[in-house]
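Let us practice reading a record.
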Amino acid sequence: MNSSRLVLFALALLALLALCANPLQACDSCRCSLGDPEAGGAAGLTSGSSSEQYRWAADLSYHYKNWDRVQAHHALAVNDTAGRATHAVLDEWTASLRLSYAVRPDLELGLTQGYRHVRQINAVDPLFAGAHEFSKGFDDLRFDLNWRFMKQREGGFPVDLSLFGEAKFPTGGTTERGVSARIDAEQQPGSGSWDGTLGLTVSRRWTRWGASGALGYTLKTEGTQDYKAGDVFRAGASGSYRLSPDGWGAKLWLNLGVQAIFENKARFDGEKDPNHGGQTLFVIPGLAVQPLDRLLFSASLQAPLYQELNGYHQEEDFSVQIGTRVRF
């Protein structure tokens, strides 16, 4: 790839990131999947990530999220004021298993099931304000598809291009209770809603470097407690560099990505809620290790660079994700 093409590709990625300058909304969190580390797969999906050697894959991931601390008396005062509302989540984690099958090298189908655990303090009842509450259980089942319709070829098309889609089914639990009342819809393991996502990814590999970008839109429907989360637009880009020398059996990559989330305001019982949504931009440094051809380990840190939230809403401090992929 000559220098002019490199410049054009870099400008294309910057143009993708420019779409992230609009406001985001904060109830929807940063997501990082186990993309292809050779193609900068740190933020979101990666084009052409299916293996041409193995058809099946199992991805096991653990995602821990820490929230900005909110004092119980402050949250209680906000929630007692008309038109205002806030949460008092301490932290949460989700463990997920994704099984995927490559129908052919350019078409992969996946099914994901997770288990979510949320820890918060009571901020709605003066008698129990500050008491710890827990919401835990299986979250919603997800089905996804990734179709690479253009493939990078030497002397030919310069990048991989893929379409991806995801359907989320309302299978998760929605009845968890705190010390005095039912826990809010956002902190339930499941959503009770049918949601769908469509998007486009682009990626390129050359020598030791890789880069990828992704755009996606999620349409959400009304779920439990008459709550409809806001629709979400995501934009991400990432780059990777292979540290291990050519010829080594094991491979090691460093990667760096950014992801922006634009989420519409939520609705309660059909009415817009001014305390949901906002703007968030995450930076995502990480690494990936491939000791064997069919085995991959990855770890990443997601830190918010920018958060502009609507109304009264908690900000996210940081999150950490570790994952393992086995192909067979």
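A brief commentary: The longest helix spans residues 3-18.
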